[in-house]
Amino acid sequence: MSETSGIPGRRRPLRRAVVAVLATLGLAAAAASAATLPASASAPTPPSGWTQVFLDDFNGSAGSGVNTSDWQYDTGTSYPGGAANWGTGEVESMTSSTSNVALDGNGNLLITPRRDASGNWTSGRIETTRTDFRPPAGGKLRVESRIRMPDVTGSAAKGYWPAFWMLGAPYRGNYQNWPGVGELDIMENVQGVNTDWATMHCGTNPGGPCNETTGIGNNTPCSGTTCQAGFHTYAMEWDRSTSPEEIRFYLDGVNFHTVKANQVDATTWANATDHGFFVILNVAMGGAFPAAFGGGPDSGTESGHSMAVDYVQVLQSSGSGGGGTTPPPTGNRDAYSAVQGESYDGQSGVSTESTTDTGGGQDIGSLANGDWALYKGVDFGSTAARQFYARVASGAGSGVSGLVEVRLDSRTSTPVGSFAIANTGGWQSWRTVPANIAPVTGTHDVYLTFTSGQPADFVNVNWFDFGH
User: Fold this and answer.
1) Number of H helices and number of E strands within the chain?
2) Residue 297: cis peptide before it, omega within 30 degrees of 0
3) H or E segment at 25?
4) What is the Cα gyration radius of the chain?
5) Within its chain, how far is the Cα of 26 from the centroid?
6) Alpha helices in 84-153 (DSSP H)
7) What is residue 19's predicted lDDT score, i.e. its pLDDT?
């Protein structure tokens, strides 16, 4: 959900009695509104060759909350430590109240924005507890939902921003690494217009290979009934069986937007896709996207119009890659030439920045305890490497230090070598640090892992290589 979407640095107090009364009345109104919805449909049976890996049909008693084994509530106006107003400028406060997020008793989930007597907005935002949704090697992933957007249009809809979308798993708990970790907006809508927007966000912000904060997107109208007047099926298929790999977006089974891996550089694509994702449903009020179409909410915006969600389903199709097993590394990196830090194939907690070190380019930074970076297919050859070298800098505070570790093929394997690093005189004060390692031959995926007794950042890395 960007600032067409913006940086999603997104993720209660006791209320006065009058607000509690209003919330109760609001829930009753939602139940009455829900009664007018058509009977829900069950999620379709997976087609031949597809396996269902997640389903919520939102069956349950009216006024109950979501299943917290499958979903977690995002509350307030940001993630812990994340950007204010969910990073998008939206004005509501998200709650776990059934006034904002509730089943309707007819097989639908209702997410309902509400304005209280003081003019303050609340709404709902939930995300899957699982963060591992991704296609198997050589296979496909399909994420779909049947949704009726809030049934409000014109001036009464100013500020409404419903969405069904996904964020890369490394975002959870970091909240500062967008858009590099990837965002897939399967459905976004603003201002009650009859339009479905689909977008992929990646790279750097602003600008970069993915044209942020706009992203790589397209839009299409709903047909038959408008997006607001009826249910429509919104879906994304991530296809790793094609070359190049591609991500396709659908409205009612019609593909209207496709993003291919070769539209961006390989590192950008890998950073955005080489990990799992989690699914998000929410209705924001206000923010950068509505601002681009007239703004709001304002005094004419109507409270209490729900996004109704019939089901969310995730399907997986195995391909020639073997149902999710990672193929062996192909040896496309030379262990004895500099491997640039920013060329990672996967990461957690890592950010990139311009470096003043010789040769310029970028380094990886914000490295602290538990962070890691993956470099696939490093070829050590038949003569054992016994040395590791890394170009590092540190502006860590007094008493802050940590280890730069080398692990092979798994970030939880025993390190083959490591060195300790503390303040080098500044975050761009570079030195090359050597370390002995256990003998290594052949081709391996190399993980750099970072371990410290303190939570503070302790090192930047520009490049690394190996020696005999």
Assistant:
1) 3, 30
2) yes
3) helix 17-34
4) 24
5) 31
6) none
7) 30
User: Which runs of consecutive H residues, i.e. helices, occur in 261-408?
Assistant: 266-273, 288-291
Residues of the chain scoring pLDDT < 70:
2-41, 319-331, 359
Strands (E), 138-201: 140-148, 160-168, 183-188, 196-201
**Region at 129 (left for phi over 0; alpha for psi -120 to 50; beta for the rest):** alpha
Q: Tell me if the pTM is above 0.70.
A: no
Report whether 161 contacts 285 (CB < 8 A).
Answer: yes
Average pLDDT over the chain, rounded to an integer? 88
Contact 4, 216 (CB under 8 A): no
From residue 434, alpha-carbon distances to 20, 205, 365, 420, 464 in Å are: 64, 34, 19, 10, 10
Lookup: tokens for 421: 């690093």
In contact, 170 and 275? CB cutoff 8 Å: yes
Residue the block writes with tokens 């942020």 = 212
The pLDDT tens digits for 56-88 are 999 999 999 999 999 999 999 999 999 999 999
For residue 4, say if its preceding peptide bond is cis, omega within 30 degrees of 0.
no
Element (H, E) at 419: strand 417-421
pLDDT tens sequence across 267-316: 999 999 999 999 999 999 999 999 999 999 999 999 999 999 999 999 99
Cβ neighbours, 10 Å, residue 165: 27
Measured distance CA(148)–CA(155) in Å, rounded = 19
Bridge partner residues of 72 (DSSP): 127
CB atoms within 10 A of CB 259: 24
Burial 284-293 (b: 16+ CB within 10 A, else e): bbbbbbbeee
